Amino acid sequence: xxxxxxxxxxxxxxxxxxxxxxxxxxxxxxxxxxxxxxxxxxxxxxxxxxxxxxxxxxxxxxxxxxxxxxxxxxxxxxxxxxxxxxxxxxxxxxxxxxxxxxxxxxxxxxxxxxxxxxxxxxxxxxxxxxxxxxxxxxxxxxxxxxxxxxxxxxxxxxxxxxxxxxxxxxxxxxxxxxxxxxxxxxxxxxxxxxxxxxxxxxxxxxxxxxxxxxxxxxxxxx
Length: 222
Prior knowledge:
Layout (H helix, E strand, L loop, with lengths): L1 H13 L9 E4 L5 E4 L1 E5 L7 H13 L1 E3 L5 E3 L3 E5 L20 H12 L2 H4 L13 H20 L3 E5 L1 H11 L9 H19 L6 E8 L2 E4 L1
Parallel strand pairs: 3-6, 7-8
Antiparallel strand pairs: 1-2, 4-5, 8-9
């Protein structure tokens, strides 16, 4: 019985998927290069997570992570990217008299108040992300439409959006306050139902080309 359980555990272990690996070339000041093969993203890192803070210090100091059973994970070939909401309240505000303090400076001051110096001093760099503008929202919408085109190709369907249809999706899916978070919902509720209706019951049962335009303020086929 014990032997059978051991075989099952071994089979499960060997069937585990390998983590996705990326090759990144880092150029040093002396013009030598370092190759990294794994990237890890830690999202919304906060000061209140003291345990996580201590773990990150261990990783940045010794390039390894040790769990409570003494097992070690090697971080020598890892690029660690951390994001945080610290200072986000200043992203869309005017700071100081006559905007004398930039938003980036105000955000970084808040970051320095939020995190301990020993943590910040171990970071290779800090990047400030500003509010999304319409140009970036346009790129995001184009990317999402390309993804939809790929799915339609499997049904032998080619879609063309008129400029008016594209602008309507952009207007409905992007706001200065929430960025492009509504983009997926707008595509799912306004565009996809039109396409699915034609694919299942209409002119696109056997594939074909479809043009999406605007009629009476709404997306329409034809």
